[in-house]
Amino acid sequence: MNLLSPWRAGLAAALLLLASGLAAAQRAPIFVLNSLEADVSVIDAATWREVKRIPTGKEPHHLYMTPDEKSIIVANALADSLTFIDPRTAEVQKTIRGVVDPYHLRFSPDMKWLVTAGNRLHHVDVYKWDGKDLALAKRIPTGKTPSHIYIDTRSTVAYVTMQDSDELVAVDLARQEIRWRIKTGPMPADVFVTPDDKTALVGLTGSDSVEVFDVSGDAPRTVRKIKTGAGAHAFRGAGDQKHVYLSNRVANTISKIDVTTLQVVETYPAPGGPDCMEVLQGGRLLMVTSRWARKLTVIDTQTKQIVKQVKVGKSPHGVWTLDHAARF
Q1: What is the pTM of this model?
Q2: How far is residue 144's CA from residue 165's CA, in Å, rounded to a whole number?
C-alpha cells in the first residue's frame, strides 16, 4: 500500500479548493437593483454577501451592461435619469439627467443608439450616442405601456413590447419610426431575438406561455406558443448558443427553452416571484432575483437545486455581473 496516496489526494483536493477560492476572490461584483429602495446591492462573489448599497434615483426598474462592458446603467424611471456604474469597482461613474421615464433600456450592439421605454408615458425614445453624451433623435408615440426592448445584431431594429395594448412593435433605428406592429397575447413583457435575427420570443406575463414570431421578412408572422408557466416574464440566454431561460413569475419556476425545437427541455424551481436572471461564467450557476422575497437566488442548473440565497433590498429586479456567460 502506498501511504503517500491519501496524502497526495488530500493535497490535490486542497489545491483545487484553494484555486477555486482564489478564482472566486478575483471575480467581479454582482449587482442587484432594488426597485422600491432606489438603490443597487453590491454582492461579493467570493463570500456571497452584500457589501454595499449604491443610491440611484427614484424607482429604478432595470439595469443593463453596455455592449463594451465598461458600464452598468441603471434606469431610474421616476427620477428621469440614468446612473452609470463601473462593473469592476462598483463606483458611480456619472449620472445623466433629463432622460424622461426610462423604465427599460438597451444600447444597439454598435453603441450608436440608446433606446429607452417610457412605461408611464407611452413612448419610446431613441438617442444618439457619441461615446460620452446622449442626444435625443426622436420621441416615438407607441402603444400602451411600452415594457421591454431588444435590438437586433445589426443595430437596425428595436423590438418593443406594449404591456397594456398587447402588441410587439418594431422600431427602425435609422429612421426613428415604427416599421410594423403585431398583436400578442396578454401582457407581453420581455422579448428575446435569436442571433440570426429571424425569430422573436415574447414572454406573456398575463398568460403561461411564450409567443413566437417570425420577424425575418417585411411583416411579422405568428409561429406558435410555447407553454412554460404562469406569469412568463424575462429571458436570459443560457450561454451555450442553443438555449434561453425564461422566468415564470407566478408559477415560481424557470423554463429552459431549446430555440431550435422551440420546446421546454428543463424546468427549475425558483421561489419568491422570479424575475431577471444572470448566468455566471461556465454556465452552471443561474442567478435570479426573487422579486417578492427580497433575495437573489442562485440555482445549480445541473442538480436543479437552489444552492444560495442572498438577502437584498425591496423588490429586487435586475441582476448583472461582468463575470457572466455568453449572452446566448
Answers
A1: 0.91
A2: 5
Round to whole Å and give the CA distance between 33 and 59: 10
Contact 270/247 with Cβ under 8 angstroms? Answer: yes
pLDDT interval class at 26 (50, 70, 90): confident
Task: Report the C-alpha gap between 309 and 298 in whole angstroms.
Answer: 6
- Give, in order, the Cα–Cα distances in Å from 190 to each of 24, 62, 231, 232: 31, 12, 11, 9
Are 209 and 228 a contacting pair, CB within 8 Å? yes
- Gyration radius (Cα) of the chain, Å: 20
Q: Which CA distances in Å does 309 have to 11, 49, 56, 64, 95? A: 31, 10, 24, 22, 31
Are residues 290 and 4 in contact, defined by beta-carbon separation less than 8 angstroms?
no
Question: Which residue, among 37, 62, 40, has the nearest Cα to 51 in the 3D structure?
Answer: 40
pLDDT in tens, 191-201: 999 999 999 99
Cβ neighbourhood burial of 68 (10 Å; 0-12, 13-18, 19+): exposed
